[in-house]
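[09:14] KT: can someone run the structure on this one? pasting the chain below
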Amino acid sequence: MHSEVKKSKYSLPNLIDGSIHAKSDLDELWSEIHSNSPTFYTEKSKLNSCGFWNVTKIEDCRTVLADYENFTSEFGTLLNNLGNIDVAGGSQMAVTDPPMHSVYRKPLMKALNKSSIESWQPKTKELCTKLFEPIFDGEEVNLSQITAAFSTATASMILGLPDEDRDSLTNYTNMCIAPDDEKYIVDGCPNKTLKLGHRMLFTYFSEKINERKKHPGSDALSDLCNIRYNGEPLSIGSLVSNSYSLLLGANVTTPHVPATTILKIADTKVYDDWFENIDSIHRSAVEESFRWSSPASHFIRYATKELQIDGNTIQKGQPVAAWIAAANKDASLFENPLEFRLRRKPNDHIAFGFGPHLCVGHVLARQSIAIFMEQFIKLFTSIEVNHSKTKRLNSNFINGYKELLIKAKLRN
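[09:31] RB: done, structure tokens below
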């Protein structure tokens, strides 16, 4: 196999290492990789039980994510599970290829259609007002905590989950997406943390699904329970894993976009420009927020046959990581990609993935973030970030912050 790998004189990082992502944003690193070795192979190491390919250019990432005949998701989609066959493959929407993928997707798309989402707008605005209350008195607050609460509350609204469960759900999902992080790790063991987070969420959703089967509602969890395949309802295991996937998806995207965006533009002319022209540029500014933050750093696929990418031979069965965060800073598509542009058009980012697995909740995410950012920008000015206490998540999957302390003043 190694004879097939093009060697690079450039020192290539092992991107599975969460500490690389925790030190700082990787914008400069992505630029260097794009210039020197945009597609490269990471050998087996103490951090990864098998080698894997990395693609960072946007066209290559689109190919890997969309071409399910050549790149399957059914063996797993995250580097944290590298070397293990995902037991949910073929029964969970995130790790199922078409046509079965569509069986799960269509009812959820119907539940999350634009008219349904618009009905939640008043509640979402009320939620923002409530969550912003600690900022009103000018004291230092952790913005990451506020955006995490916003994310879980939004997901709970959609799934029909009780308000009192939000804190525990936030903690369990963070254990699953950042098991290496010191804030969430259990007994110093990432694998134990991951398993415990999964077990707690799966137990929780098992109980909720049994409740929904007895007492259906008008929420996405009830819609899942109503799915039929060949005339038969989905198994409890499939319902649980898909509920878990929906919650995880919401908690990946929603909290880190506003936090990362506000950090970037706080107390700058860009922030003032957004406020002064919010009616005309808000939509494009929100899209730029998704491109800039790219909260889901990567997804992996497995090659179903030997094929070529960027002059490299990918062998059948080899995992390929499509680095979304890198693709969204690709200068071949985005002019001055390291510049935050409120009016960037077109903005063909892949923050929500690409192809059949495009995030099922992308309309909801866009609308939720649009409401959050509009409320925040209209309410607050003079944003001060305590950079000395800013801490990124130790995660190769989530591109975001666990500590982002800010002060702000209310507008007149």
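[09:33] KT: thanks! The longest helix spans residues 236-265.
[09:34] RB: yep, looked fine to me
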